[in-house]
Amino acid sequence: MRVVKIRVLMDFLAIILMAHLWGNINCQMFPGYEIKVNGTVHVQRGLCVRVPCTFSVPSDVRLTRYTSVSWSKFIQGSVQLVASRVNSKYSSNGRFYLIGDVTGGDCSFIIEGAMDTDAGLYSFRIEDKEIKLTYPDVLPNVRVTEFTEKPTISSARLVEGKEVTLTCTSPGRCQKVTPEISWSGKVSDRRLMNYNLTHEDGSRSFHSNITFTPGKSDNGSPLYCTVTLQTEESTTEKQTLNVEYSPSLAITIEDKETNETTVTVKNGDTITMRCYADSNPKASITWYKEDTVVTQDRSFQTISLTLTNVTPSDAGRFLCSAENEHGVARRTVHIIYHNPSDSIMDKSSTNIILLAALGPLCLLLLALLVYAYWRKRKKKLMNAETEDPYTSLRRSDITSVYDVLQPMTPTETNIIGSPEEASHDYENVQKQPK
Ligand SMILES: *[C@@H]1O[C@H](CO)[C@@H](O)[C@H](O)[C@H]1NC(C)=O
Ligand SMILES: *[C@@H]1O[C@H](CO)[C@@H](O)[C@H](O)[C@H]1NC(C)=O
To answer: Is any atom of ligand 1 closer than 6 Å to the C-beta of 42?
Structure first.
């Protein structure tokens, strides 16, 4: 606090006027009587102001508990009492309060919920058995200004799905009046908690906590804190929510959004695949082919990959991956190479399938033919046996073949012998050329 001495003519006239009204000026130039208080006090309409003030009396004057003090305001040539302490009892006009220990020389005051009519010059007066004095040194000039102060909203990191508490603090500090604090905005499931903190000087600050769990959709939406004072003045502060979330991806192929995971290309094609990441903060996006980085970006939320003049080697698994500190998103696109001229190969492969199906059929047919032949032979043989048992010696063509290959004269045993012998003979036949 500093001492401000206003000695303008108007003030002086005011003192004379006030002294005249209150009478009993008994200290010429008042040696030893001094007051220290701001010369000008600014307060915003509806808000509160605390004005420190000390006064002194000459050392031979003792302040007793009977000492009464008062603050008065000049209004259109008259003086109006606004606050006093008389017989240890404090009184106030409801907005102007004495707050200090008067007997200790403290003339501090507060103005709460200031109104335009509170503007003006104020004077401090002391009365005791022997003294009756209005301090002439300083007449604080109270100015009531527009209510322009804003509440403050604390900043906190908002992450999707993580509960957070933001605090709105009302402007100004007041002792007696309590402003109302409210929130608006589209955040859902919020819990509110209004509270005030009392400071060392006895003033209180007012706060409101809003607790909510931000979602991705809350990003960029406004949150408002409104403070309404007793004078119905109100003020609002806005905070645009910056909600952080992990990436999600969208892929476009030739500028069309797609959910396909496979894309067929043919020789000479040109194809552009774009990968968009929706994330906050920005994600680092990468296109991989198999496990190799093809292209990467950290500053844009989109990245494109163009395959020009496609050849079979362009086919493969392409992966777009976007990552920020909150997570990773991945999407895979399989590029399948298909050449129209390959359709010949396609036909031959159909033939293979056809063949594969026909194979068993042919075998069956063959088996049937063999069976039919065998039946026929058997029937013929049986007929032969019934006709003439001795003709059996010539009953097989195969035997005849053996006859040709084998110089050994066929005996009956050779011809109609056991299979073992037959196979033995066959081996001999095979070995024969050696
Ligand atoms: C007292 O005066 C000083 C400077 O003149 C100013 O900065 C301060 O805000 C004033 N105090 C009050 C309570 O108005
Ligand atoms: C309000 O929120 C702040 C910030 O999270 C916290 O420090 C404070 O304890 C909360 N106060 C109350 C009364 O809940």
So the answer is: yes
Q: Which of 158, 164, 167 to mutate to test the pocket of ligand 2 (most atoms within 8 A of CB)?
A: 167
Of 110, 107, 94, 100, whose CA–CA distance to 142 is shortest?
Answer: 110
**Is ligand 2 within 6 A of the CB of residue 155?**
no
pLDDT at 138: 86
Output the pLDDT for position 431: 38
CB 193 less than 6 A from any atom of ligand 2: yes
Residue 362, pLDDT score: 65
For residue range 5-16, what is the model confidence (pLDDT) as tens digits? 434 344 444 554
Task: Give the 3-state secondary structure of residue 349.
Answer: helix
From residue 57, alpha-carbon distances to 89, 98, 128, 132 in Å are: 21, 18, 11, 12
Look at residue 433 in the predicted model and tell me its pLDDT. 40
Q: Which two tokens stand for residue 299?
A: 């500053």
Q: Beta partners for 139?
A: none
Structure token digits, residue 345? 């190969």
Look up tokens 């991806």; give the residue.
249
Residue 249 CB–ligand 1 contact under 6 Å: no
CB 169 near ligand 2, within 6 Å:
no
Q: What is the pLDDT of residue 417?
A: 40
Q: What is the DSSP letter of 411?
A: P
Q: Are strands 222-228 and 164-169 parallel, antiparallel or unpaired?
A: unpaired
Q: How far, in Å, is the centroid of ligand 1 from the Cα of 41?
A: 6
What does the alpha-carbon distance between residue 132 and residue 22 come to, in Å, rounded to a whole number?
A: 9
pLDDT of residue 293: 93
Backbone angles phi, psi at 413, to 5 degrees: -65, -40
State residue 142's pLDDT score. 96
From the number of C-beta atoms within 10 Å of its C-beta (0-12, 13-18, 19+), residue 340 rates as exposed
Q: Which residue's CA is the closest to the ligand 1 atom numbered 4?
A: 38
What pLDDT sits at residue 364? 80
Write down the pLDDT at residue 352: 54
First and final C-alpha spacing in the chain: 134
Q: Which of 37, 41, 118 to mutate for ligand 1's pocket (most ligand atoms within 8 Å of CB)?
A: 41
Which numbered ligand comes closest to the C-alpha of 41?
1
Residues of the chain with pLDDT under 70: 1-29, 341-360, 362, 380-434
Mutate which of 155, 190, 198, 209 for ligand 2 pocket (most atoms within 8 A of beta carbon): 209
